[in-house]
Design brief:
The complex is a heterodimer of chains A (171) and B (1148). Chain A has 171 residues and is α+β, with helices and mostly antiparallel strands. Helices cover 30% and strands 9% of the residues of chain A. The chains are: A alpha+beta (171), B mainly alpha (1148). Chain A: One of its GO terms (biological process) is protein maturation.
């Protein structure tokens, strides 16, 4: 566990005005399907927050309003590949700094969030954007190893942290 | 006189602290009652109380004094003698020194002080002694909250009621109050304290007075409260908001000019705070203080004040600028409020200083380097989009500062305009009138936006100044600024016009172009709307400007420019209306109104018809005569397209006509109502309609185009219902005479005693000519919109007529009958052959519909049994369905007025519901034709079920407040509780699947149309039926609306607080029903709501729902793969809610 913040003052980006999806009037096309697309996955992920810990004795959620992945530009819409027909999603995320210790936690949070939000037929691939992290391969391997993910989710501390990151997304 | 022995027990009960507070209160009341009724004098009371008031036991003494005080509190309106009051106040004043019994003494003093003059009040001398004693003996800050509050109230009272007497205390008073307020923290006490300071300052206005001398001490006490930091977010029992407290403190700050030397530096200092709230408060306080302290005192702060304000204004957040349309949300935002408040403060400062001789403040502003620099950098000649954010901000700041200066006064305006306006004109390339002006001015997208913006804003402020001057009848025609502007006006208008004309196209950035153009339009609008005796535009240039702006309206349509242009025309129109200049009015009429009227009225041209109508309305609303012309033209167009559609048969214009009708009823009619021209216009409309009906031409279309006739009827109904009774009489008479003249309607046929006979003789709707069919509906529409007082000619005939056409399937006739019965109060009481309600009901129901339907039912069931496949049965079925529709409207009319006959109707409807069931029992022979008979029965029963919807729904078409209906309160709830038991028992008893489906259909209508609150009170009884209904109805796709309605009721039962027992008891079946609905294929809303309901169920007690968790999670996981996105979103939330009720591990 880190004893101090690695990136104490991350750059916070202004959230771009995305045209919100207009809800179609109900009678329009009752039986037509809305495919799962990039924007939907992005909407699912954009409100995941990065909750940071100061030290392992006292949890301090710092700052008061944790930044969302969208604000930190960790995830962007372009970095998401979806194929609804083949049931495949690939999310490429960019950690804020090269040696970010949060990378695995962010990756894990993304995986859990998608696992809970997408139908079970989907295969989810999560990767660190090439060249943005010091231990890129290790992180990628860890995030896409079923058994290691399952084991991580057996760890109450880790689950707690993941829940903290996701709590805002269910509002 | 009451004997002492009779009331002393009350005293004892009050003094005894072991008694309950109710008992104590009762004893006070008893004693006060005695005094009020003169059974006991106040002196007598005091004499008897002597022992209690003077005893050495401090507890009893305190209670005794409080008793006296409380009794006096109840006597606030009983006249008392001066001597008694003098004696009593003397007593309480002396008791202030008795700290153990202080509470009672304070209450007593306060009660006596608050007495009004007419019942005897405290004398000035006594008040002075009281104040003195209080200052001497009471350590306010060491008291508990309630006593502190009393003390503050006491001082407040003293200062309010006896200012002169208290004033003699001088320094002691100021000192005492300082000490009292110091460290106070309770908002209730502070409200009083701030008020006290304010009054105190008013008491000693002289500089050498105690407030003048101790201003620094007094202000020190106050200053620590600024800015008010208040942690109570909600209004609690104190009922005090941060805003109240802040305002009270502001008044205290402004109360004395001697605070100036302390307050202004403090406020200026806090202005640079990073806390938005502190900034906002400082600005508010500053604005107020400047006004109260006056220019002389403020002059030494002028420089600092200007620098601070400049700092705030130059750092406005960019989106609070004038350039962006403001949403309501933004207006509430703190930064927007700060911007507003800063400008307000600047305005206050400018206006205060401009009254002084040398006006140092405006010189400061005008000579400020920042202003000049920003002015120059902002007007470097680029479009807004090309400017840096910094210069955008600067140009807006400079604009708003200069505008405030211009608006402040004539001399200020002179200075600003003289310095800046010629420069701006130069930048825009505009020369003084008459000199050689560039004729090739074309728009190329590189217009100097800064200069354009500033010149338009300055012009607008000048106009504001001129308007204000006109109100105060100041003469400004020859003022410097005015002649300077006049010098530029013609060429300015000319250049703006040229630019605007050439900017309609081109490969320029769209945003830039639209922004520039809308400012040009605004500039032109301002140029022509200067009030009389100031800048005058010649008629020629006025006309030119109108023509140019009109060219945007009629030319190539561009929505983004169209709106500002229309707004400008509207403003000019309002100005012309006010200016009483016949020449300009004429020009406006010819150039604007006529042109807009002459636009084509079809929807297929470039400008959408909706916008064109909006333009018509806003131009029309600038003057009454204009609107009357618009209405005339509108009528002409409506009826010419009416003829085109109905007579020529060109139905492609149908949509246009519908839109015109909508516009007429939603905009024109309300305008007429406001200007009291409703009947004049409305009668003309109805007359036109009747003329069309009476004309010889045959109609090519009839009910085929339902939308058009619906719009026509709705408009007619609205016109009729808005007219007064006298006019309605005329309309009905006219309609009646047309009816009599119709060939299809020989009144003698209606004279037949039996309805069947006349039914046979009268032609059906589809046998009538199209015009006659339309007339029948129109006539019915007129009848249903009438005022209850309007008499109806030949009532019996008309009722029969309506009834017959109801049976022939005219739904307006049914609605009309329902409405007539509903409103039947004094209909035609003037006629000698008056029909009373009971007779009408007998005619229509007992001898009419009920009989016919009963007969038809009999024939039907016999028919089916005998397996005759003749047409007669079919006809009977048709008759039955029409009859049931009619019956439902009539039933609704009766139900809404609370008439007992409604019950009979409902009983018949219930009987019809069970028709297929009864049939089965009568026909035991099984053959194929029973099946077809069965089908017909189902058809009939289904329309009976739908009748329940009519009974309970809120109809737009009739039987509502708009059309004068009588509505008994809670009629739906009454109906619900009356019918539901019978309904539920028939559902229980029902064996057949088909009948059950029909019963559930009726049940569904009742449940979803009754107000939710009524259903929820019965939720225990109905919830299982709702679930059953949902599972039965969800099998068929055509009842999806009803499934949705029922689901909404169910969600109400689940979610309403405190009423969740029903949901709790039935949790397992509710959940399994909801799980079934998650895969309902026919309607997304049903699936979404089902998932939401499941989510709400997760909040029920854990023990109740835990066993169901796996089942729900499985179902919701399937919903994650729903074809619709909203359902998936809800499913993810719902899954989380259910998963997290048990453990963190969410993998199931």
């Amino acid at each position: 566990m880190v004893s101090q913040l690695i990136n104490a003052n991350p750059v916070v980006y202004e959230i771009k005005d995305r045209p919100a999806r207009v809800r179609q009037p109900a009678e329009e096309d009752e039986y037509g399907a809305d495919p799962i697309d990039q924007q939907e996955i992005f909407d699912i992920l954009s409100t995941v927050v990065v909750v940071r810990r100061l030290n392992h004795i006292r949890d301090i959620k710092d700052p008061e309003h944790p930044y969302t992945l969208e604000e930190l530009k960790v995830v962007s819409e372009d970095a998401i590949d979806v194929d609804d027909k083949q049931s495949h999603v690939r999310v490429t995320f960019t950690p804020t700094v090269e040696h970010c210790s949060m990378a695995t936690l962010i990756g894990l949070s993304i995986r859990v969030k998608l696992m809970r939000s997408l139908p079970s037929r989907f295969k989810v691939d999560i990767r660190v954007a090439p060249g943005t992290h010091a231990t890129e391969d290790a992180v990628n391997k860890q995030l896409n190893d079923k058994e290691r993910v399952a084991a991580a989710l057996e760890n109450p501390n880790l689950v707690d942290m993941v829940e903290g990151c996701l709590s805002k997304t269910y509002l | 006189m009451a004997k002492a022995s009779s009331w002393v027990r009350h005293v004892e009960s009050f003094v005894d602290s072991s008694r309950s507070s109710e008992q104590q209160k009762a004893s006070i009341n008893a004693i006060a009652e005695l005094v009020k009724n003169d059974l006991l004098t106040i002196e007598g009371l005091v004499r008897e109380l002597e022992l209690y008031l003077t005893t050495n036991d401090s507890v009893i003494r305190a209670r005794g004094i409080l008793l006296l005080a409380e009794v006096l509190a109840q006597l606030h309106s009983k006249p008392l003698h001066h001597a008694s009051i003098h004696f009593l106040i003397g007593f309480f004043t002396s008791r202030l020194a008795d700290w153990q019994a202080l509470h009672g003494a304070l209450v007593g003093c306060l009660v006596l002080l608050r007495r009004k003059k007419d019942v005897g009040m405290v004398m000035g001398n006594d008040a002075r002694t009281l104040a003195h004693s209080c200052l001497e003996n009471v350590q306010i800050q060491s008291l508990a909250l309630h006593d502190r509050k009393l003390c503050f109230e006491l001082f407040r009272c003293l200062l309010d009621m006896h200012p002169e007497d208290v004033a003699t205390l001088g320094e002691d008073l100021v000192h005492g109050i300082c000490a009292a307020i110091d460290q106070e923290k309770d908002p209730r006490c502070l409200m009083d304290a701030f008020h006290i300071v304010r009054n105190l300052a008013r008491l000693y206005p002289e500089p050498s007075g105690p407030v003048g001398g101790y201003a620094s001490e007094l202000f020190e006490v106050l200053s620590c409260y600024f800015p008010v930091h208040f942690t109570h977010l909600k209004v609690d029992d104190t009922g005090i908001l941060r805003e109240d407290l802040s305002e009270a403190l502001m008044h205290a700050f402004c109360a004395s000019p001697f605070f100036e030397e302390f307050a202004i530096p403090l406020l200026l200092d806090k202005l640079s705070s990073s806390l938005h709230l502190a900034k906002l408060d400082s600005l508010k306080y500053l604005g107020s203080c400047i006004l109260w302290y006056g220019a002389n005192r403020m002059s030494k702060h002028a420089k600092k004040l200007w620098f601070s304000l400049k700092d705030v204004i130059f750092h406005f957040p960019r989106n609070s600028s004038i350039l962006v349309p403001k949403s309501i949300e933004e207006k509430d935002s703190l930064s927007y409020q700060i911007a507003e408040e800063a400008l307000k403060c600047l305005r206050a400062a400018i206006s205060q200083f401009s009254n002084s001789d040398d006006d140092p403040f405006s010189s400061l502003i005008i000579n400020d380097e920042d202003i000049e620099m920003s002015f120059l950098s902002g007007t470097e000649g680029r479009s807004y989009e090309c400017m840096s954010e910094e210069s955008q901000r600067k140009i807006i700041a400079v604009g708003s500062i200069l505008c405030e200066l211009v608006k402040a006064s004539g001399p200020c305006c002179n200075r600003v305009i003289k310095i800046f306006f010629p420069q701006l004109m130069n930048m825009l390339g505009i020369t003084i009138n008459g000199s050689h002006s560039p004729s090739d001015m074309t728009y190329n997208g590189r217009l100097n936006f800064g200069a354009l913006y500033l010149s338009v804003e300055l012009l607008s402020s000048c106009r504001d100044l001129a308007v204000a001057a006109q109100d105060s009848s100041e003469f400004i025609l020859h003022s410097e600024w005015c002649s300077l502007l006049q010098g530029f006006s013609t060429s300015l208008a000319h250049s703006f016009g040229l630019l605007l004309q050439s900017c309609s196209s081109g490969d320029v950035n769209e945003k830039t172009r639209v922004r520039d153009a809308s400012f040009l339009v605004k500039g032109l609008q301002i140029l022509v709307t200067f009030p009389k005796n100031s800048l005058q535009a010649s008629t020629a240039s006025f006309e030119d400007i109108l023509t140019i702006i009109m060219s945007i309206i009629v030319g190539n349509f561009e929505k983004s420019l169209w709106k500002p242009a229309l707004e400008a025309l509207f403003q000019i129109g309002l100005f012309v209306g006010k200016s009483h200049d016949p020449e300009k009015r004429r020009s406006y009429e010819i150039i604007v109104l006529e042109k807009i009227l002459s636009l084509p009225w079809v929807d297929d041209s470039m400008i959408p018809l909706g916008l064109r109508l909006e333009a018509l309305y806003s131009i029309g609303s600038t003057a009454v005569e204009f609107m009357l012309r618009v209405i005339q033209e509108l009528e002409r167009v409506i009826f010419s397209s009416f003829i085109k559609i109905y007579v020529v048969g060109e139905i492609k214009d149908g949509k246009t006509l519908i839109q015109l009708f909508d516009f007429y009823s939603s905009q024109v009619l309300p305008w007429c109502k406001r200007t009291e021209r409703f009947e004049e216009v409305g009668m003309r409309f109805v007359q036109c309609v009747w003329n069309q009906i009476e004309s010889d031409a045959d109609f090519k279309i009839g009910f085929g185009e339902k939308d058009i006739s619906d719009a026509l009827m709705m408009t007619t109904k609205l016109v009729v219902s808005g007219c007064r009774v006298e006019k309605q009489v005329l309309i009905v008479q006219k309609a009646y005479s047309i009816l009599l003249s119709k060939k299809f309607f020989p009144p003698e046929q209606l004279a037949f005693p039996s309805v069947e006979e006349s039914l046979r003789l009268m032609p059906c709707l589809n046998q009538l000519s199209r015009k006659d069919a339309l007339f029948v509906s129109l006539f019915a529409s007129v009848l249903l919109a009438l005022n209850p007082k309007t008499p109806i000619p030949d009532t019996s005939l008309i009722l029969r007529f309506l009834m017959l056409y109801l049976l022939k399937g005219c739904s307006s006739a049914a609605q009309a009958l329902g409405s007539l019965l509903n409103k039947w109060s004094s209909h035609d009481t003037t006629e000698p052959t008056a029909f009373i309600l009971e007779e009408a009901i007998e005619l229509i129901l007992d001898k009419g519909l009920l009989e016919i339907i009963d007969d038809a039912l009999k024939i039907c069931s016999v028919d089916a049994g005998q397996s005759s496949s003749s047409d007669s049965c079919l006809n009977e079925t048709q008759l039955l369905t029409h009859g049931l529709v009619g019956l439902s409207w009539i039933g609704k009319g009766l139900l809404m007025r609370g008439h007992e006959k409604a019950e009979k109707v409902i009983r018949l409807l219930l009987k019809c519901l069970l028709l297929p069931d009864n049939m089965k029992t009568t026909s035991s022979g099984e053959n194929i034709s029973v099946e077809s008979g069965q089908d017909k029965h189902i058809l009939v029963a289904r329309s009976a079920a739908d009748a329940f919807h009519v009974l309970l729904c809120d109809s737009e078409d009739c039987l509502n407040k708009k059309f004068h209906a009588t509505v008994r309160p809670l009629y739906q709830q009454r109906f619900f509780s009356a019918v539901m038991p019978a309904m539920l028992s028939s559902i229980k008893d029902c064996k057949s699947q088909t009948t059950r489906g029909i019963l559930y259909r009726a049940f569904g209508h009742i449940v979803s149309d009754t107000p939710l609150a009524a259903v929820i009170t019965e939720s225990r009884k109905v919830v299982s039926f709702i679930l059953d209904a949902l599972s039965v109805l969800s099998l068929e796709s055509q009842s999806k609306e009803m499934v949705y309605g029922l689901l909404l009721v169910l969600s109400g039962i689940i979610t309403v607080e405190n009423e969740k027992e029903a949901a709790m008891e039935n949790a397992p079946i509710i959940i399994s029903c909801l799980i079934g609905l998650i895969s309902y294929p026919h309607m997304m809303l049903v699936r979404e709501t089902a998932v939401q309901c499941l989510m709400a169920m997760s909040e029920l007690p854990h023990a109740r729902i835990y066993p169901l968790r796996p089942q729900v999670l499985r179902a919701v996981s399937r919903a994650l793969d729903d074809i619709k996105r909203p359902v998936r979103l809800e499913a993810a939330r719902c899954r989380q809610a259910w998963a997290s009720i048990a453990s963190r591990s969410l993998h199931c």
